[in-house]
Write a structure and sequence with these properties.
With 369 residues, the chain is α/β, with parallel strands linked by helices. 37% of the residues lie in helices and 15% in strands. The mean pLDDT is 96. The structure holds pyridoxal-5'-phosphate.
Length: 369
């Protein structure tokens, strides 16, 4: 049996003929930039999230850079985020001209440890940037309370958490501004790169809109330095086809995660903690073991598409050597980088696939005999 990580057939089961008919029409009409398709998706996603504004951009990374620019982060400002995250979170801070400051991960949630925020904040801190890592909401009550106490903006990196909820609210809409990615690997996936910035603040919305369009307010009138990064019409059309299924797909991911947890409960594996006041959307299903690399090889040999996210923590990546971060500085992040393994998880995954993965994992730990 083969257990893949993605099944694009299942994602397009509905609506493919209509989609290709629309592509043909769009290509022949020559309409491709900020069209009605983009506005339709922005409106639909805003309605889904119960937020005032959604602005489509070129990628999740661009969403983060544009949001930081819109919040006024500039050279000398510090942005606090977590050491256990994808490269793009920290790269975006540097690309916006600001200085990233990291806090270590929590040993049970693998995400931001809000108890460590105190030691990271200085007079130069401008923005807090929690990441809803692997689809689990960050501890937003603590983050928001901390931000209010220190007068900071909150930028949520929700690139892995479309549709996840924290105390009933969709992540991305709890802080000042939220960012999503529609990279083909994500829970809501375009057919290429795409991203979105969401906010309910009209002043920030305008700053975002201007900064995705080269700082232009009318032709030849550029009032800020921005990116040229807009969600393209074809991707918006793909996303509109998929959005109505997102909640159902997330529910199925939760079902697959609970199958895994039931079947793996007896093995020497740890799982990301799930809290009662949240709806995790399991972008990734992580298991934790100090025999990670052996287990990875064992499952790969059995055609199970497991993967490591992320084997080298951000602070030890060569790209950030000039930041002065050292090995041992964020020990929890370093430990999880060495111990986490993502099992395949898809909305269309069958219980038979989960059974097969669980049998192979059991055979690895306790032998097949
Ligand atoms: C994917 C991702 C991004 C970047 O999104 P892209 O669309 O790939 O640019 C940023 N942050 C996190 C946590 C991500 O997983």
């Amino acid at each position: 049996m083969k257990v893949p990580r993605y099944n694009f057939h299942a994602q397009f089961a509905q609506g493919l003929p209509e989609l290709t008919r629309d592509f043909e029409r769009m290509l022949l009409e020559g309409r491709s930039v900020l069209t009605a398709e983009v506005r339709a998706f922005e409106d639909a996603f805003a309605k889904f999230l119960q937020v005032q504004y959604v602005r489509g951009v070129g990628s999740g990374t661009d969403a983060l850079i544009i949001s930081l620019l819109a919040l006024g982060a500039r050279r000398g400002d510090e942005v606090v985020t977590q050491a256990n995250t994808f490269h793009a979170t920290v790269a975006a801070i540097r690309l916006a001209g600001a200085t990233p400051v990291l806090v270590d991960a929590d040993d049970e949630t693998f995400g931001l440890d809000a108890r460590r925020l105190d030691s990271a904040v200085t007079a130069r801190t401008k923005v807090l940037m929690p990441v809803h890592l692997y689809g689990k909401p960050a501890p937003m009550a603590a983050v928001i309370a901390f931000a209010q106490r220190h007068g900071l903006a909150v930028l949520e990196d929700a690139a892995q958490a479309h549709g996840a909820r924290y105390r009933g609210r969709y992540v991305g809409t709890i802080g000042t501004i939220g960012c999503f990615s529609f990279h083909p690997s994500k829970n809501l996936a375009a057919a290429g790169d795409g991203g979105a910035v969401v906010t309910s603040d009209p002043i920030i919305e305008e700053a975002v809109r201007i900064r995705r369009e080269l700082g232009q307010v009318q032709q030849n009138n550029h009032i800020a330095i921005g990116l040229n990064s807009k969600l393209d019409a074809i991707q918006a059309r793909v996303l509109s086809t998929k959005l109505p299924f997102l909640s159902d797909w997330n529910g199925r991911r939760r079902q697959v995660a609970s199958w895994y947890r039931d079947r793996l409960a007896e093995l020497p594996l740890r799982f990301q903690r799930v809290d009662p006041d949240e709806e995790h959307v399991f972008h990734l299903f992580q298991v934790r073991t100090d025999r990670r690399d052996e287990l990875l090889r064992y499952l790969r040999e059995r055609e199970i598409d497991v993967v490591v996210r992320y084997p080298v923590p951000v602070h030890l990546q060569p790209a950030f050597h000039d930041a002065g971060w050292r090995e041992g500085q964020f020990p929890v992040s370093e430990r999880v980088a060495g111990e986490l393994l993502c099992l395949p998880i898809r909305a269309d995954m069958s219980v038979h696939e989960v059974d097969y993965v669980a049998e192979c994992a059991r055979a690895f730990f306790v032998g097949s005999g």
